Amino acid sequence: MLDYAPDLDRVFQALADPGRRLMVERLSRGPASVSELGRPLDMSLAAVLQHVQVLEASGLVRSQKAGRTRTCSINPVTLRSAENWIAGRRTMVERRLDRLGEYLAQTAGQPEPAWAAEPGETASQHEEQQ
Amino acid sequence: MLDYAPDLDRVFQALADPGRRLMVERLSRGPASVSELGRPLDMSLAAVLQHVQVLEASGLVRSQKAGRTRTCSINPVTLRSAENWIAGRRTMVERRLDRLGEYLAQTAGQPEPAWAAEPGETASQHEEQQ
User: Fold this and answer.
1) CB spacing of A28 vs B76 below 8 angstroms
2) pLDDT of residue B114
3) pTM of the prediction?
4) pLDDT value at position A120?
5) What residues form DSSP beta bridges with A70?
6) Alpha-carbon distance B80 to A43, whole Å?
7) What is the pLDDT of residue A130?
8) Among chain A residues, CA nearest to B23
9) Residue A24: which of B35, B83, B89 has the nearest Cβ?
10) A96 touches B29 (CB < 8 A)
């Protein structure tokens, strides 16, 4: 991976619109012109162009003009960065829940731990959780 | 996976803010109170609460009030839905680029295809790309 850090604010903002997600969906199947991207959307060409500009500013989409046609294509590196950010957090959550599950399975049926009977000792720990 | 379709507009919108991503990051390590979530952020408790509400509305975060403390935790199912959406598109792009690469490798050094010499035949195909 190149030293390339997309602006996640802009990437997630770009993906927060259903019309723009439809454009990303279309572009994942291959390059398309701006008018082709707008075809399934009930909006003016100006509005379509604005969405394309948001996608370009986020780094999700690149475009090239040849004559009067602007052809857009997707940048998989940016898609992957956004995916990696989410996957990193999700993996952390799932590992933690797995460990918790294992702990609960191991301790099931065991007598209450010592600290349960000594509230004085856990007061500061409890404070941390507040 | 349960029959659960999070609102991707709201999920990506929630992730489009660096403060909220920091909260998700923190919660992926374990549950936390609202004031704990706000600690690394230079903002009022009211502002922190507003961000927490955006995260809750998106389904990324759940919270529970016990006494005066609201404890937040992350919902990995929502994280996974957002991740899956991006991964689906990214995989499609990469497969397409792989196929294109294979095609180019196979045809490298071969004579020009017939259509390259017959522009008339490809005019309509070219039109499609506009």
Assistant:
1) no
2) 61
3) 0.79
4) 47
5) A65
6) 31
7) 39
8) A89
9) B89
10) yes
The minimal CB distance from B130 to the residues A9, A33, A97 is found for A33
Give which of B96, B32, B102 is closest to B61, Cα–Cα: B32
Q: Do the chains contact at B129 and A33, CB–CB below 8 Å? A: yes
Instruction: Return the residue in A7, A8, A12, A33 with the most chain B beta carbons within 10 A, the one to mutate for interface testing.
Output: A12
> What is the dihedral sign for C-alpha B68, B74, B75, B79?
positive
Q: What is the pLDDT of residues B28-79, one digit of tens each?
A: 999 999 999 999 999 999 999 999 999 999 999 999 999 999 999 999 999 9
Q: Hey, are the CB atoms on B97 and A76 less than 8 Å from each other?
A: yes
Q: What is the DSSP letter of B39?
A: T
Residues A24-72 have pLDDT tens digits of 999 999 999 999 999 999 999 999 999 999 999 999 999 999 999 999 9
> What is the least distance, in Å, from the CA of B47 to any CA of chain A?
18
Kindly report the nearest CA distance between residue B80 and chain A, in angstroms.
7
Q: How far apart are CA A47 and CA B93, in angstroms?
A: 25
CB-side neighbour CA atoms (13 Å) of A127: 5
**How many other C-beta atoms can be found within 10 angstroms of the C-beta atom of residue B32?**
22
One-letter amino acid of B23: M
Task: Give how far B32 is from chain A: nearest CA, Å.
Answer: 7
Taking a C-beta distance cutoff of 8 angstroms, is the pair A31, A68 a contact? no
Would you say B72 and B37 are in contact if contact means Cβ atoms under 8 Å apart? Answer: yes
Question: Across the interface, do B18 and A9 touch by the CB < 8 Å criterion?
Answer: yes
